[in-house]
């Protein structure tokens, strides 16, 4: 990294009463990077995002955003951030168009310029037809798109997206990925949280996996897979018994066995020979699937949980 | 969040602008506005004029006036109070706790105190809209003159500021809607006893002192003095009371907003 990082956290802590939601994390995000937070529910992703967004005061540790101190320079930093919170907080008293123009005013953007950007952004998220509608009748995915458009209204240097595509249909998600990719191409730094592995793999140059308020792994998607998972994963389903029952029976095959409610995951560098070994021991799974390791597997190995629970 | 940057009038304006947008958005807001305006007018007619006909003229501090002339300035002060309070209690609380309007604002350069100032200004404007209309009614009924109406108008703005800021402070500390019942009971008690329908000297001394402590009394005294053109030095005390009330309410509201929103 040659430039000063856009975000730098050292021993960052957030407590709510006695409860520690973020437990001393270290973080650096470089300009132009797309950075992702993965983690199960309650891991502390949103709490971290809110601190980065300068709307939540850190309990301890050091945090610098855009080279400034969030506590002292909050308004100045926020002027250059675009924030899409986990829960939509669009203004129900205003129309879709006014939601953008009113928000633009919060940044001190002149009215005419605000209207110009609103028109452009509605186009960008394909909501032009809904410009005059109130927010309430919009579908969940449309609201999400409007929230993201709203986050762009100040042409931010750093965009924070907390689960941007949760609740979107596949088409809307792909549209959004494409839009976010274009932003990134334009030099905007993206920080996002997600429960979708494909999203993380598609969008993020670098990821951290959070669990229990701590960062448990960090790296590029490829690096994480190489480091924490095996090359291949065999998914075994058995008709008769629960997957747990087979953990002992198949012990020693592959590097690791993970029973899920409906299937058993067998981590190995060589899927085919693992399957032969299963058959040799006299077991006949009702279905067998060999696939490459994904981030999903990394996540499972690191947190013991599936991503979408 | 604490910040070294000064409050910005542009950002306060943007907060007000949001409410102007909401006003444009549809009939529901107008309906609320409208009904709030009519309440004090109805009291003026039913009690001031109606009951006034039974009572006849009143002698207050050695001056004779019609009962309607006595009640009208009180209702004027009351409309400033209800206008501002309605805005900073119900509407403010709804935006604060339910639709998260202020959370959205806080993700921008806007600061909690700027939200408080913008909302308070808006509340005061609403109260002033009521009092301006009410003053026109009073002029038409011969209960004040245009000159004294002009003198009374800024006083009603101050009343709106004072009640608005205390209402806002309450909205940032209460737990839920049920607590508003308490606020409204208090508001109604003040409405009945603050020298609105009878001079406070009619009550036992203990009650009189109690009334003297509560804010609507000072609002009524100030507004009545100005709209009837009977000035007294004690009105400076009324002004001071309301200014302090506005300042304390605003500072509590700003601080609480910052604390809750940046948790
Ligand atoms: N304002 C708050 N007051 C008290 N506890 C809180 C508050 N906000 C978050 N928490 C707690 O902090 C922990 C982390 O929450 P956070 O919202 O950061 O998780 P998350 O990783 O975003 O989870 P999710 O995937 O469900 O969005 C949770 O246990 C949550 O209950
Ligand atoms: Mg979250």
TrEMBL record, chain A:
Source organism, top-level taxon: Bacteria
Statement: the UniProt record of this protein carries the keyword Nucleotide-binding: yes
Topology in membrane: Peripheral membrane protein
Main location: membrane
Keyword tags: Antibiotic resistance, ATP-binding, Cell membrane, Membrane, Nucleotide-binding, Translocase, Transport
GO biological process, one term: response to antibiotic
InterPro entries from the UniProt entry: AAA+_ATPase (IPR003593), ABC_transporter-like_ATP-bd (IPR003439), ABC_transporter-like_CS (IPR017871), ABC_transporter_ATP-binding (IPR050763), P-loop_NTPase (IPR027417)
GO (cellular component) term, any one: plasma membrane
UniProt-listed SMART domains: AAA (SM00382)
GO MF annotations in UniProt: ATP binding; ATP hydrolysis activity
Keyword Nucleotide-binding: yes
SUPFAM superfamilies in the record: P-loop containing nucleoside triphosphate hydrolases
Start and end residues of each ABC transporter domain: 7-237
Location(s), subcellular: Cell membrane
Gene3D superfamilies documented for this protein: P-loop containing nucleotide triphosphate hydrolases (3.40.50.300)
Family: Belongs to the ABC transporter superfamily.
Protein name stated in the entry: ABC transporter
Organism, scientific name: Rhizocola hellebori
UniProtKB/TrEMBL annotation, chain B:
Principal location listed in the UniProt entry: membrane
Record has Iron as a keyword: no
Localisation: Cell membrane; Membrane
GO molecular function per UniProt: ABC-type transporter activity
Keyword entries, A-Z: Antibiotic resistance, Cell membrane, Membrane, Transmembrane, Transmembrane helix, Transport
Keyword Membrane: yes
GO terms under biological process: response to antibiotic
Annotated transmembrane regions: 28-55, 67-94, 115-141, 147-170, 230-253
ABC transmembrane type-2 domain location: 31-260
One Gene Ontology CC term in the entry: ATP-binding cassette (ABC) transporter complex
Pfam families: ABC2_membrane
Cleaved signal peptide residues: none
Membrane topology of the entry: Multi-pass membrane protein
PROSITE patterns: ABC_TM2
Family listed: Belongs to the ABC-2 integral membrane protein family.
The protein's name: Transport permease protein
Source taxonomy: Bacteria, Bacillati, Actinomycetota, Actinomycetes, Micromonosporales
């Amino acid at each position: 990294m040659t430039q000063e990082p856009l975000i730098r956290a050292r021993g960052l802590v957030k407590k709510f009463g006695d409860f520690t939601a973020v437990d001393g994390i270290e973080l650096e995000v470089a300009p132009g990077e797309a950075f992702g937070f993965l983690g199960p529910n309650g891991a502390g992703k949103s709490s971290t995002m809110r601190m980065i967004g300068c709307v939540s005061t850190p309990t301890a540790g050091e945090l610098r955003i855009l080279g400034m101190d969030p506590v002292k320079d909050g308004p100045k930093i926020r002027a250059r951030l675009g924030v899409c919170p986990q829960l939509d907080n669009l203004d129900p008293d205003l129309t879709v168009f006014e939601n953008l123009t009113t928000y633009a005013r919060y940044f001190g953007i002149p009215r005419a310029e605000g209207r110009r950007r609103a028109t452009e952004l509605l186009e960008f998220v394909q909501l032009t037809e809904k410009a005059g509608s109130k927010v309430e009748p919009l579908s969940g995915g449309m609201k999400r798109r409007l929230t993201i458009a709203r986050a762009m209204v100040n042409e931010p240097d750093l965009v924070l997206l907390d689960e941007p595509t949760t609740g979107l249909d596949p088409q809307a998600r792909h549209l959004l990925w494409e839009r976010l990719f274009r932003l990134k191409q334009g030099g905007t730094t993206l920080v996002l949280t997600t429960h979708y592995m494909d999203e993380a793999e598609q969008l993020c140059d670098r990821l951290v996996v959070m669990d229990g308020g701590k960062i448990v792994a960090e790296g590029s998607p490829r690096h994480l897979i190489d480091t924490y998972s095996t090359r291949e994963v065999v998914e075994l389903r058995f008709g008769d018994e629960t997957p747990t029952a087979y953990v002992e029976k198949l012990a020693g095959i592959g590097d690791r066995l993970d029973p899920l409610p409906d299937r058993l995951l067998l981590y190995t560098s060589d899927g085919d020979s693992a399957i032969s070994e299963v058959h040799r021991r006299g077991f006949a799974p009702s279905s067998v699937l060999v696939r490459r390791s994904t981030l999903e597997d990394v996540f499972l190995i690191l947190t013991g949980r599936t991503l979408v629970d | 969040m604490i910040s070294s940057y000064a409050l910005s009038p542009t950002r306060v304006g943007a907060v007000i602008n949001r409410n102007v947008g909401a006003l444009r958005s549809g009939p529901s807001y107008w309906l609320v506005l409208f009904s709030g305006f009519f309440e004090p007018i109805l009291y003026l007619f039913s009690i001031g004029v109606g009951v006034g006909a039974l009572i006849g003229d009143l002698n207050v501090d050695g001056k004779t006036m019609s009962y309607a002339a006595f009640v009208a300035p009180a209702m004027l002060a009351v409309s400033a109070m209800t206008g501002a309070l309605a805005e900073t209690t119900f509407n403010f609380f709804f935006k604060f706790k339910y639709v998260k309007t202020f959370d959205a604002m806080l993700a921008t350069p806007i600061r909690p105190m700027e939200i408080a100032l913008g909302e308070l200004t808006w509340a005061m404007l609403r109260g002033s809209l009521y009092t301006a209309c009410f003053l026109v009614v009073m002029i038409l009924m011969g209960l004040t003159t245009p000159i004294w109406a002009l003198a009374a108008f800024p006083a009603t703005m101050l009343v709106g500021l004072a009640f608005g800021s205390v209402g806002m402070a309450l909205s940032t500390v209460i737990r839920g809607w049920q607590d508003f019942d308490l606020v409204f009971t208090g508001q109604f008690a003040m409405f009945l006893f603050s020298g609105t329908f009878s001079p406070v000297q009619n009550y036992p001394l203990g009650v009189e002192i109690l009334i003297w402590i509560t804010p609507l009394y000072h609002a009524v005294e100030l507004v009545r003095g100005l709209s009837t053109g009977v000035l007294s030095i004690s009105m400076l005390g009324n002004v001071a009371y309301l200014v302090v009330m506005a300042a304390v309410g605003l500072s509590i509201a700003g601080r609480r907003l910052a604390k809750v929103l940046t948790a």
